[in-house]
Amino acid sequence: MTIAFAKTRELGAVEKAIIFTESRKTQNYLLRVLADSEFKDGIVLFNGSNTDDRSRLIYAAWLDKHAGTDRVTGSKSADMRSALVDYFREEGRIMIATEAGAEGINLQFCSLVVNYDLPWNPQRIEQRIGRCHRYGQQHDVVVVNFLNRKNEADKRVFELLSEKFQLFEGVFGASDEVLGAIESGVDFEKRIASIYQRCRKHEEIKVAFDQLQLELSLEINEAMTQTRRKLLENFDDEVREKLKVRASDSTASLNRLEQWLMRLTTHELKNHAEFIDDSSFRLISCPFTAVTGQIPTGLYELPRRTGEAHLYRLNHPLADAILAQAKGRNLDVQEVCFDYAHYDGIISVLEPIVGKSGWITLASFAVESLDQAEDHLIFGAATDDGLALDEEAAARLFSLPGKVTGPCLNIVPARLEVAIQHRQVVIQRTISERNARFFEAEAEKLEGWADDVKLGLEREIKDIDRQIKEVRRGAMTALTLEEKLAGQKQIKALEAQRAQRRRSLFDAQDAVDKQREQFIAAIEGKLTHKSSLQKLFAIRWKLE
Questions:
Q1: CA–CA gap between residue 471 and residue 464 (Å, rounded)
Q2: DSSP 3-state assignment of 372?
């Protein structure tokens, strides 16, 4: 057996693990193996009967602990389950469970799931992961699947589960949509069992699984297409974005900033690149001579999906050059007509202003503080009848198809300038509050260090005082002059040591004060905000 797959969402502190097996025999085998390892303490078994000595002892202790309370239901099977789960939560480290542990128990305190035996039914795998990946989980759940790489059928089953069913893309993620598309996990399991029973040769297994994968592809793709269509027709764009559903059937799911970047890239590179779809393009020539050496030609993808492609993203040299070129243009005020009637989605924040017109300005606000640079886009927008648009509504306008209908007079309402200035103040106040929290946290660290230094030296001084008292007591009870003199010499040496420690304490306090002053001076220097506002454009808009 080898570990074939380990999917982490974000590795947290894994202190407990649940191991799933398909049989009691395998469960007992794993118990024997782990009993001779460093994990021997804190192992608990979970199966349909739990008649082993270990489970009976846990159950008896649980009954004594909860005697006379409503935790004890009187049903031995229910109480046994509660006892084993409580033990696993409070004392256990590893739970070895058969399929009985995949339903009806909550293990959100455990963040490692090991499928020692991987079931063929994808819904059973979801149930197993769902024991830990649920409300109240403090860490990202790590899933480890064991696979016999020498078994061709096992390998193909794993490929189907991981790639076609997307089981390990995250619970409540892509797998839910896929699992909802198949008729029955039990039916799928039966079809797998049939292949195992009738196919013996490598080629027979390959042909059977290829046929099954083809059937599943047609079934899943059709159901997912119907699901997307329903979402596009009935859900607001904001909901669709959270569900990562897009109007096109692109292989990438881009967030709004990435979509804007691709649209700008399409405009700026129209004579220098061949655009394959809305998330990939082939750069034929680089128009930016100053950074040509940093921008290779070839395929770019957002996100990268093939090995030979360059990863296109914000902060890529090509994206930086495109943004700088676009921001540097001096744009005349134009009138733009946005077309909501022919948009294939729903943007609820825009529906109240359909048929209205107004003004929009956009500015880039850059702030440097605490050695960090931040860029903020600030919209100022309003309708002609005086209704101010929030930044979400203003930004959503640019999700719509639109066309420039011609130039117009540069008479942007003054209230938009006021709105931008107000937003600047809010951003700066937010940064100041965040910096204040940073200062407080750093000051607490400094005070903690000072306390540690002070307490350490004071502890040493107290220890020397104790030694002096013991030596003085010994000198007083000494019988000979030599012993008394030796005791006095030892006392003198200890007193000198104590005096040195006291001087060290004073020196340490002075060092702390000096470091505190340096810290405050350094923070004060960093807290000075350097900000700049660059007006990007102003347009007259109409929403139809």
A1: 10
A2: strand
Residue bearing tokens 């000494």: 478
Residue 520 CB coordination number (10 Å): 14
Distance of alpha carbon 250 from alpha carbon 278, whole angstroms:
7
Q: How far is CA 463 from CA 17, 468, 470, 477, 489, in A?
A: 45, 9, 11, 22, 18
Angle at 220 between CA 218 and CA 221, to 5 degrees: 65
Among candidate residues 386, 333, 400, 390, the one with its CA nearest the CA of residue 356: 386
| Residue found by looking up tokens 């079931």 in the block | 119
| Pair 93, 16: CB distance under 8 Å | yes
Do residues 318 and 268 touch, judged by C-beta distance below 8 A?
no
The tokens for 488 are 């006095």
Q: Specify whether the CB–CB gap between 53 and 43 falls below 8 A.
A: no
Q: How far is Cα 119 from Cα 123, in angstroms, rounded to an integer?
A: 9
Residue 121 CB coordination number (10 Å): 18
How far apart are the C-alpha atoms of 516 and 132, rounded to whole Å?
Answer: 46
Q: CA-CA distance, 262 to 280, in Å (whole number)?
A: 8
Contact 409, 389 (CB under 8 A): no
The two beta strands, 334-338 and 310-311, are unpaired
**In the sheet that 43-46 helps form, which strands lie side by side, from edge to edge?**
2-7, 142-147, 112-115, 17-20, 94-97, 43-46
If pLDDT is split at 50, 70 and 90, which confidence band does 188 have?
A: low
DSSP classification of residue 161: I
Q: What is the pLDDT of residues 410-469, one digit of tens each?
A: 777 888 888 888 888 888 888 888 877 877 777 777 777 777 777 777 788 888 888 888
Sorted by sequence, the CB contacts under 8 Å of residue 300 that are 6+ apart come out as 280, 281, 282, 283, 309, 310, 311, 312, 318
Handedness of CA 521, 526, 527, 530 (dihedral sign): positive
Instruction: With 0.70 as the threshold, say if the pTM is over it.
Output: no
